[in-house]
Amino acid sequence: MTDDKPLTSFAPPPLSAALTVAGMVGSSLYFFPKIEHPDATIFTNVVFPEILSVKELIAIRLFFAFVCFVGFATAWLTPPVVVTTPYRPKSRAPRITFELAGWKKHFPFTSWSWNLLGISFALNAYIAYQVDQQQDVPDWMVRMGLMLWEVAAPMTLLIGAVVKYALWPAQIKKSGRGEGFMTPRALLQHNANVIMAMAEVALLGGIPSHFSHAGLSVLYGCSYVLFAWSIQTTLHGQGPAFQYFFMDTTIGTEHTIALYVLLSVLMLFYGLFCTVDTLLHMVGNNFTAHATFALTICSLVCRFRD
């Protein structure tokens, strides 16, 4: 008979989940295409050179990086976030409400992606500056700049869509209003991320995203899964805790199925972002069309009030 008492110590992931993550990581690395001679000039490309110069492009990217840094820094200034995870009935995790304060506010997937977006904008601004000054940029840095962008940018659409169509409505249903989603920091991380990413791809530099690099989203997702497994006893001291019910390692095969769904969703939104990029190239250099397209995407996934 299975013991259904709440656990008070670390809950290792089921073997099927561990094998799933290992297999996904191995497959993504094995099939990932090589970028042997990356072209650093993709970071100095300007979609509308008659409107924007390379120096202005660099300045805007640095401003976007600064906005992300502000969102990062305010984690220490805003009140703690109270988390009550809606665990599955068979979960053996203690039903305890816990708080995310200070550095722990960077534990959520949204914060991970927000911080990564800021690093991406800062690095890509630096690469563009070096190229504009006719300085050599190491191949590894160009690869890193491209890959960081290809990971961070598609995640903006995923986060915006999940908040707008799932999390925010669920919170309204629970308490009558979108508590926690209308704070300045939350609005930045759920909306400004989309706006900045769409501005970059549609109006600024148009850094490309490649369908063949979809494995990056899987590697990113697996990295977060490993992180979620590792911090389960850090969130509170009374047993394993999880920010998201589908990361709960105590629910057995349901957790493994959830991982397949999660990784599939990450690849789906990666593909959607690449499709957006492709459609913008098909439109051509028409500022009105690009701006309209970007505004349409933002309106589909951004939400600012109840």
Automatic annotation (TrEMBL):
UniProt keyword list: Membrane, Transmembrane, Transmembrane helix
A GO cellular component annotation in the UniProt record: membrane
Domain of life, per lineage: Eukaryota
Species, as recorded: Seminavis robusta
TM region positions: 15-32, 58-77, 112-129, 141-167, 187-206, 218-237, 257-280
Protein name as annotated: Uncharacterized protein
